[in-house]
């Protein structure tokens, strides 16, 4: 027997329709590439999204054709989120931090028909245009006044000029909710990137899940600053969740330095922010010397890589901001877990609460997870046993776009490539990437723990731990360190700093001081690059 309820498909267009009708006057604020601050409302955004849809129709794009973006977080990018997907095309957000050759490869692999880009990325587009075999239209996200005159790109139009010939009247089409909505490629740290092809259904369910109180907890009472880029897994789904809830949106554009982010947080009275640790490191580094404080910020979601304990403490103790530690990946749209406390934890001492907050958190409803050994046997949730982390759920991929890499699933579960523990309360903690875990004498050493302790030292700016070959122990950890300006920190002093904080056999065998540590396109440490740089390195005493 089937239920007797209306069968309304879950479509992305319904989010912007809801936003226009029920909180149309809520603000969307953008710092633009042109340098100004742009303000309008969800009602305005909905009208311009319909213009985008009409403009795409005029280009005679087919249902399911890909429209690519190379763009910062801003109102025009937001309009493309809804105008492209809502009209039945597929939004393809490209990470501009990738190498141009890789960007061209991605555009060809996706068979992009249109490329919309911020002027910041004009040099990239000029470098790849001749290599993009399927792109027929180039749209610069600006007005005619700012459109480059001699770009060398054929048929280049300004976004405003492109939209100007089209009205705002448009009936969003209705179609199967399993239709593809957006395309996101991995950062491709090994080999060519692979892509997750999200559906309208998966995107809406992800938006519902992320807005839950024990997840991101977005509401119409929030002003949200997504510092995480809209080209990085759809800004963790925040543009969709904000439209769902009516939260004020504040887009930072290209200004991601500490000073720019702080000014926007204060001027727009932001209550909620989201980004990777490297961004918050710059923000805290800007605030501390000047004795600056937050007047409105209450919560920040930190994900993308493990958040150092010192950062969680600084936000809480120095600025009164709650850190929500989160975890996910491109293949998960990206949300998997968020670390919020349960009622029984609220009476615990701060030190015990901190031990929980350091974990990546509990699974959001819609995500199931387990840890297994190398033979696929499920392991206990005791908070101590390490295992390979597997996930499944309605916004977890079942296959990569165009079948790249074959079937990624293991018995219906997606292998994340992370090594983790899960405790009895369901809190998951990433201990390493499976390719980065250090195996020493039959025991596992977490490179994340080594790195977190290093950056807790007041003279350390950044740290990365990798394993080096050892004839007796298989591998031993070393830590690469970037010192803060003026630091006189020595190898011996840092190794002594580890004593009493972890087991003696887990203390690194060596400290290598470096000028910089290379970060990848999503702000993560490129340990493959570090291993290449240290290919001739030998552990002390060998």
Order of strands, main sheet, comes to 2-1-11-10-12-13-14-15-16
CATH class of the domain at 438-533: Alpha Beta
Distance between the termini: 72 Å
What is the strand content? 15-25%
- Structural class per helix/strand content? alpha/beta
CATH-defined fold name of the domain at 438-533: GMP Synthetase, Chain A, domain 3
Helix content: 25-40%
Strand count: 25
Overall mean pLDDT = 94
Which overall shape is indicated by the principal axes computed on the Cα atoms? globular
Report the C-alpha radius of gyration, rounded. Answer: 24 Å
State the CATH architecture of the domain at 438-533: 2-Layer Sandwich
Number of helices: 16
The CATH homologous superfamily of the domain at 438-533 is termed ANL, C-terminal domain
Major sheet size, sense and barrel closure: 9 strands, mixed
Low-confidence stretches: none
Can you put this structure into words, describing what you see?
The chain is of the alpha/beta class. It has a domain at 438-533: 2-Layer Sandwich (GMP Synthetase, Chain A, domain 3). The chain has a 9-stranded mixed sheet, with helices on both faces. A 7-stranded mixed sheet has the order 7-6-5-3-4-8-9, with helices on both faces. The chain has a 4-stranded antiparallel sheet with strand order 17-18-19-20. β3 (66-70), α3 (75-86) and β4 form a beta-alpha-beta unit. α1 (13-23) runs antiparallel to α2, α2 packs across α3 (75-86) and α4 crosses α5 (122-128). It is globular, with a radius of gyration of 24 Å. The model has no long low-confidence stretch (mean pLDDT 94).
């Amino acid at each position: 027997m089937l239920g007797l309820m209306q069968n309304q498909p879950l479509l992305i267009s319904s989010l912007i329709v809801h936003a226009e009708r029920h909180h149309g006057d809520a603000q969307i604020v953008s710092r633009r590439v042109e340098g100004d601050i742009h303000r309008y409302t969800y009602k305005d955004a909905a009208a311009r999204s319909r213009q985008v849809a009409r403009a795409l129709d005029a280009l005679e794009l087919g249902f399911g054709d890909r429209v690519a973006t190379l763009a910062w977080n801003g109102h025009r990018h937001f309009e493309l989120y809804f105008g492209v997907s809502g009209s039945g095309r597929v939004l393809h957000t490209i990470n501009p931090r990738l190498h141009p050759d890789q960007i061209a490869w991605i555009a060809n692999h996706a068979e992009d028909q249109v490329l919309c880009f911020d002027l910041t990325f004009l040099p990239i587009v000029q470098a790849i245009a001749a290599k993009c075999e399927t792109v027929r239209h180039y749209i610069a996200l600006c007005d005619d006044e700012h459109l480059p005159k001699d770009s060398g790109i054929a048929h280049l139009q300004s976004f405003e000029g492109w939209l100007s010939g089209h009205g705002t009247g448009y009936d969003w089409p209705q179609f199967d909710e399993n239709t593809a909505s957006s395309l996101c490629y991995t950062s491709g740290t090994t080999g060519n990137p692979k892509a997750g092809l999200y559906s309208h259904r998966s995107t809406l369910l992800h938006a519902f899940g992320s807005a839950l109180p024990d997840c991101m907890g977005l509401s119409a009472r929030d002003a949200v600053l997504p510092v995480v880029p809209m080209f990085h897994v759809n800004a963790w789904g925040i543009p969709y969740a904000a439209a769902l809830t009516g939260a004020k949106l504040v887009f930072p554009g290209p200004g991601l330095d500490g000073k720019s982010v702080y000014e926007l947080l204060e001027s727009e009275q932001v209550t909620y922010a989201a980004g990777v640790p490297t961004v918050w490191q710059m923000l805290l580094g800007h605030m501390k010397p000047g004795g600056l404080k937050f007047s409105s910020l209450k919560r920040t979601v930190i994900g993308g890589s493990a958040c150092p304990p010192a950062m969680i403490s600084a936000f809480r103790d120095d600025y009164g901001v709650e850190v929500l530690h989160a975890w996910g990946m491109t293949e998960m749209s990206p949300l998997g877990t968020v670390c919020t406390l349960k009622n029984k934890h609220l009476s615990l001492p701060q030190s015990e609460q901190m031990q929980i907050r350091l974990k990546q958190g509990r699974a959001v409803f819609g995500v199931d997870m387990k840890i297994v050994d190398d033979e696929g046997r499920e392991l206990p949730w005791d908070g101590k046993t390490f295992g390979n982390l597997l996930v499944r759920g309605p916004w977890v991929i079942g296959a990569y776009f165009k079948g790249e890499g074959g079937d990624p699933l293991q018995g219906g579960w997606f292998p994340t490539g992370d090594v983790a523990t899960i405790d009895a309360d369901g809190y998951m903690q990433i201990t390493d990437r499976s390719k980065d875990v250090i195996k020493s004498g039959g025991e596992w050493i977490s490179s994340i723990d080594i790195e977190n302790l290093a950056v807790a030292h007041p003279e350390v700016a950044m740290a990365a731990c990798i394993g080096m070959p050892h004839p007796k122990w298989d591998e031993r950890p070393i830590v690469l360190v970037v010192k803060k300006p003026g630091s006189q920190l020595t190898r011996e002093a840092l190794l002594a700093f580890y004593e009493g904080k972890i087991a003696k056999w887990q203390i690194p065998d060596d400290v290598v001081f470096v000028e910089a540590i290379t970060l990848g396109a999503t702000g993560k440490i490129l340990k493959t690059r570090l291993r290449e740089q240290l290919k001739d390195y030998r552990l002390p005493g060998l």
